[in-house]
Amino acid sequence: MxxxxxxxxxxxxxxxxxxxxxxxxxxxxxxxxxxxxxxPHIAGDLSASQDESTWTLTSYLVTNAIVMPISGWxxxxxxxxxxxxxxxxxxxxxxxxCGLAPSLGMLVMLRALQGAAGGGLQPTGQAILNDAxxxxxxxxxxxxxxxxxxxxxxxxxxxxxWLTDNYEWRWVFLINVPVGIALxxxxxxxxxxxxxxxxADSGKSDWLGLGLIAISLGCLQIxxxxxxxxxxxxxxxxxxxxxxxxxxxxxxxxxELPHPHPVVDLRLLKRRDFGVGFVLMLxxxxxxxxxxxxxxxxxxxxxxxxxxxxxxxxxxGGLLLLVLFPLIGRIVxxxxxxxxIALGILVCGSAIWWMTNFYLxxxxxxxxxxxTWQAAGLAFLFLPLNALAFRDVPKDRTGYASALINLARxxxxxxxxSVASTIVTRRQQFHQNRLVEHxxxxxxxxxxxxAKLDHVVGxxxxxxxxxxxxxxxxxxxxxxxxxxxxxxxLAVAFLxxxxxxxxxxxxxxxxxxxGAA
Length: 517
Description:
The structure is a single chain. The protein has 20 helices and no strands. It has three domains: 1-206, MFS general substrate transporter like domains (Growth Hormone, Chain: A, Up-down Bundle); 209-258; 271-517, MFS general substrate transporter like domains (Growth Hormone, Chain: A), CATH 1.20.1250.20. It is mainly alpha-helical. Helix 1 (14-33) runs antiparallel to helix 11 (176-190), helix 4 runs parallel beside helix 7 and helix 6 (80-99) runs antiparallel to helix 8 (121-132). The two termini are 23 Å apart. The chain has helices spanning 14-33, 39-45, 50-53, 55-67, 71-78, 80-99, 104-118, 121-132, 138-166, 171-174, 176-190, 207-226, 236-256, 272-303, 307-331, 337-354, 364-389, 398-436, 444-457, 462-495.
């Protein structure tokens, strides 16, 4: 039901619902990254290895990835508000149970339930915003939503580190409970959506499509999350899952494209603006979470930062986004989207290229400034990309389009983290082989270096101490070069996206452009 004088499907005051929906998205996105820094504590408290504890992340991401693309279909079948409330209730209850989990096995199962419940929050929330606001106001409404979605990965490591350092890891999950309870009441009373009657979709459910999504996306998420730890295709399990995912994707496209009531509307990708926007959003997630993984890892492994301190590197950039998003929301309907996206790519790419100049003694403010510069570029990407993708999407397909765009961003993030960690590991091996070639007595420079170390150590038995110190210095340089290679890859890959903008028609956002985040 629409309010008097308001948009169809809106609330008596749609500006009340925007921060509420944004908070729901913030809570769900936060749980992707907030638990990362708590893994050593989880492993120690539940008598598990570090490797085993990572399944608490994998299980969440797998079920989240499966539910997200079908959230539009589920909203149509059960009603958008009803489905959204069910997701919040499920997420809140599973968060409580995760905080009380007595064993790692139980925690992994509950995290899978939490990921499934959270999978519908982002796409359904942005569809609710699309209903609540008229087209001319959706840019600003989306800016509020975007602040939550992009700020959550930035603040997640800091919150997780602070909770685990000062309390215990269980509070990483328990903190969701009071927020979830408040959201349940607010959504119940504030939100009124126009499609609350369940749809039968011609009386038939696309069960085969659901199964193919579960196989293709579920297997791919496990491959991305576990591939590096299991040495990729040297592992029979990873190889099998990759083949299963590839077959699942081929069959999914073959089945869904001609289906009259698909569970995932892949036909939307045939629309030029949406298709290009989908690819760019995938790369946006790739760079955002790939760099969000690399910077704290760089600070912790090479500079001895604690989890909280490493998270603080990301925070200034997140705060800048809070300032920039409302400003960009005001101009997204007035400026050519291609210019805004090109500016975002150039600023973000140049910031990551600057990170290739980091060294072992780099100051905290330099790390934070580089991330803040990158955040400025991300601000000019997120809203224009959503406006571009939704510019020619029919209103009745917004829920399906929202599911695909959110899937692109989240899977791009998973790919970014996986690729970044793999590059660091593989380049360590490369640089170690190259450096070891020169660390031998026949190299005059090596002998001179060892002599200087002997002089600095200046104590009995200093020869062994010098060799140990030399090995430590070499290891640090090897790891440093590996991180710089990863930053360089992200920068080049991102700047290489500029030609894609030639495929997009010019102009500002219009129609339903602001409807997704």
